[in-house]
C-alpha cells in the first residue's frame, strides 16, 4: 500500500515575534504514523500518548501506546501496535488473555517491543491472574502478521536445552533474518542458579546457541561457560556477541570473564579478563556492553587493571575497543587527548553504536588535567582508525545562532549509509525550556544539519491538501543502535527516521522523516574553538 508523504515546512518562531513571521529552516518530507486523539485500532479507545517508537529496515514501525476513553482502566490502558505501509495493526493490549497459557492469566506491564524486517514484534512482560505468582509471572511473546501471537518463553516453564525450569528472561534482540535472541537463567528449588542459556529463535523453533557447561572456546580443556548476566547481541546472519563467566582449571576471579562471537557452527574468543588490553600497557578487567555487525566485528567497553608493579590510575582506567578476534583496535581511553579538543581528555565512555563498516559513534564525559568536568560531554565518529568530533557541550553547531551552544547530548543512532542522528539541548540568550531541544542529522559526508527544534511549527496532517501546524514542545528518539546488533533503532538503512514529537496543547505524534529527500538549509555556524577550555570549566552543572 502506498504511504502518503508530504514535504512539511518547518518554521522557527523567533522569540518575541509572531510565529508566522519566523525563519524558514528547510523542508522535511515526513509521514504521520499515529496521533493522540485518534482511535486506536483494535480498541474502542483513543491514544493519549506514546513511547518506545522504533523502525525496521523495511520501513515498518512498532510502538507502545497509552489509551484513554470508553472502558479504559489502569489494567488495560497500554497496548502495542505495528504500522506497515500506513496500516496500523493491533498487536496486544494489557488485560488481553495470554496466548498459549492454560491458567487464565492475562497481560500486564509490557517491556520495550522489538521489531524486525520480517514483520515480527517481540515483547516481554508480566502476567496476572488467580494462578500467577512470582515463579511464573514473566514471559516473552512474538507477534507475526497474519499468524497472531505465540508464547516463546515463560518463567517456571521449560525453554529448551539445559533450561528445564526457566527463571529470569531478558528482553530480546531481533535481526532482519526473522531471528531473535534472549538470555534465560535456570530456576531450581524456587531459586535462580548460575546455569544459563542464550537462545536463538526462528520461525517456531528455538535453538540453544550458548549453554551452561559449554566449552569456553579458545581456552584450555575443562574450562566451561558458567553464567551470564549480559544480554547478547545478534547480527543479521544470526551470529551472537556475548559476555559470559567461566570456571575450570586456571580460572580465578582475576580472569573469569570473556567475550565471544559466533554461533554453534563456530565461535571465537574475542578477548578475556586479564588479557593485555590492545593499545595499552594494562589488562582488561570488567567488561561493559557489546555490539556486533554483519562484518563479524565487535565493539565493547571495559575497565582496565594495572599489570603487576604498576599503579592504578582512575583517570585512565577505561576504554572502548572494536575489531575481531584477530585484531582489536582501541577507539578511545580515558585520559587520552580528546580528538579535536585541544587541552581536554576523554572521560568515561557513555554510549556507542557501530555500523556494518565498523564505524563507531561514541560519546564520553570530558576531563581537564585529569579531573572529570561536571556534565561536560562530547560525541565522536571513529572511522578508519581516526576519530572526528561531531558535537560537544559548550560549542555551537550549524543551524544555531552564534550565541547558542550545546548544553547536553542525548540519544544517538547510526545506519549502514553512514548517517547518524542525535538530539541535544542547547542554551544561550533567548533559549528556554520551550525551544532548547534539537534533532540533528550527520550525513555520511560529515555534514551536520539541524532537522527539527522545539518551538518550530510542524504539519501533522498527512493529506496533500490539508495542513495542521502545531508547535513542537519535545523531541524523542528511542534506542541506541547501529542497525546490526539487534537493538531497537530509530534510523534505518533507507534513511528513514522514527521520531516522537510532542506539541503545545498536549497533542503527541509519531512520524517517519525521510532524511534522504530532506533539504536542510546550509548551516552558517561551525564548531567554534576559541576559549573552549575556559568555557567548559566555567559552565553550570547540568541538572
Describe what is shown at a glance.
By secondary structure, this protein is mainly β.
Descriptive report:
With 543 residues, the chain is mostly beta strands. 1% of the residues lie in helices and 51% in strands. The strands form eight sheets. It has a six-stranded antiparallel beta barrel with strand order 1-2-37-36-35-34. Strands 7, 8, 9, 10 and 11 form a five-stranded antiparallel β-sheet that branches. Strands 12, 13, 14, 15 and 16 form a five-stranded antiparallel β-sheet that branches. It has one helix spanning 532-538; strands spanning 6-12, 23-35, 46-55, 61-68, 78-84, 87-93, 106-108, 114-115, 120-128, 138-144, 148-154, 166-169, 173-174, 179-188, 191-202, 205-211, 224-227, 233-234, 240-247, 257-263, 266-272, 283-292, 298-305, 318-323, 328-333, 345-354, 360-368, 371-383, 386-392, 405-414, 420-427, 437-442, 448-453, 456-459, 469-476, 496-503, 508-520.
Amino acid at each position: 500500500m502506498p504511504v502518503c508523504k508530504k514535504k512539511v515546512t518547518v518554521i522557527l518562531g523567533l522569540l518575541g515575534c509572531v510565529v508566522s513571521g519566523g525563519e524558514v529552516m528547510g523542508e522535511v518530507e515526513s509521514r504521520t504514523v499515529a496521533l493522540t486523539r485518534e482511535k486506536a485500532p483494535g480498541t474502542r479507545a483513543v491514544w493519549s500518548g506514546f513511547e518506545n517508537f522504533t523502525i525496521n529496515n523495511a520501513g515498518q514501525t512498532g510502538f507502545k501506546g497509552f489509551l484513554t476513553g470508553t472502558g479504559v482502566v489502569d489494567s488495560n490502558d497500554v497496548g502495542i501496535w505495528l504500522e506497515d505501509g500506513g496500516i496500523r495493526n493491533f498487536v496486544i493490549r494489557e488485560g488481553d488473555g495470554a496466548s498459549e497459557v492454560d491458567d487464565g492469566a492475562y497481560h500486564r506491564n509490557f517491556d520495550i517491543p522489538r521489531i524486525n524486517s520480517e514483520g515480527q514484534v517481540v515483547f516481554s512482560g508480566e502476567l496476572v491472574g488467580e494462578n500467577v505468582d512470582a515463579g511464573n509471572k514473566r514471559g516473552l511473546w512474538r507477534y507475526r502478521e497474519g499468524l497472531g501471537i505465540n508464547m516463546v518463553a515463560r518463567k517456571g516453564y521449560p525453554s529448551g536445552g539445559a533450561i528445564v525450569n526457566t527463571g529470569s528472561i531478558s528482553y530480546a534482540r531481533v535481526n532482519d533474518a526473522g531471528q531473535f535472541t534472549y538470555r534465560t537463567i535456570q530456576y531450581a528449588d524456587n531459586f535462580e542458579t548460575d546455569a544459563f542459556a542464550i537462545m536463538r529463535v526462528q520461525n517456531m523453533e528455538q535453538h540453544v546457541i550458548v549453554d551452561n557447561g559449554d566449552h569456553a572456546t579458545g581456552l584450555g580443556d575443562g574450562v566451561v561457560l558458567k553464567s551470564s548476566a549480559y544480554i547478547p547481541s545478534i547480527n543479521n546472519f544470526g551470529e551472537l556477541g556475548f559476555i559470559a563467566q567461566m570456571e575450570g582449571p586456571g580460572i580465578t576471579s582475576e580472569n573469569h570473564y570473556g567475550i565471544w562471537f559466533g554461533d554453534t557452527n563456530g565461535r571465537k574468543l574475542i578477548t578475556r579478563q586479564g588479557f593485555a588490553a590492545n593499545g595499552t600497557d594494562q589488562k582488561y578487567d570488567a567488561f561493559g556492553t557489546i555490539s556486533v555487525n554483519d562484518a563479524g566485528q565487535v565493539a565493547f567497553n571495559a575497565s582496565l587493571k594495572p599489570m603487576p608493579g604498576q599503579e592504578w590510575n582512575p583517570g585512565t582506567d577505561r576504554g572502548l575497543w572494536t575489531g575481531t578476534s584477530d585484531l582489536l583496535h582501541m577507539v578511545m581511553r580515558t585520559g587520552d587527548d580528546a580528538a579535536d579538543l585541544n587541552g581536554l581528555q576523554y572521560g568515561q565512555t557513555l554510549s556507542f553504536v557501530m555500523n556494518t563498516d565498523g564505524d563507531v559513534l561514541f560519546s564520553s564525559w570530558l576531563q581537564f588535567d585529569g579531573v572529570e568536568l561536571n556534565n561536560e560531554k562530547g560525541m565522536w565518529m571513529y572511522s578508519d582508525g581516526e576519530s572526528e568530533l561531531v558535537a560537544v557541550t559548550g560549542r555551537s553547531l550549524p543551524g544555531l545562532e552564534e550565541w547558542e551552544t550545546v548544553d547536553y547530548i542525548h540519544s544517538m543512532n547510526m545506519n549502514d549509509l553512514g548517517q547518524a542522528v542525535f538530539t541535544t539541548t542547547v542554551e544561550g540568550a533567548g533559549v528556554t525550556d520551550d525551544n532548547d531541544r534539537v534533532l540533528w542529522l550527520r550525513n555520511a559526508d560529515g555534514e551536520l544539519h539541524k532537522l527539527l527544534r522545539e518551538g518550530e511549527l510542524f504539519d501533522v496532517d498527512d493529506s496533500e491538501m490539508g495542513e495542521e501546524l502545531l508547535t513542537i514542545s519535545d523531541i524523542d528518539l528511542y534506542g541506541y543502535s547501529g542497525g546490526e546488533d539487534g537493538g531497537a533503532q530509530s534510523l534505518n538503512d533507507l534513511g528513514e527516521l522514527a521520531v516522537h514529537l510532542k506539541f503545545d496543547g498536549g497533542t503527541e505524534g509519531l512520524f517517519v522523516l525521510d532524511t534522504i529527500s530532506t533539504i536542510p538549509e546550509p548551516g552558517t555556524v561551525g564548531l567554534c574553538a576559541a576559549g573552549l577550555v575556559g568555557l567548559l570549566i566555567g559552565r553550570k552543572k547540568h541538572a
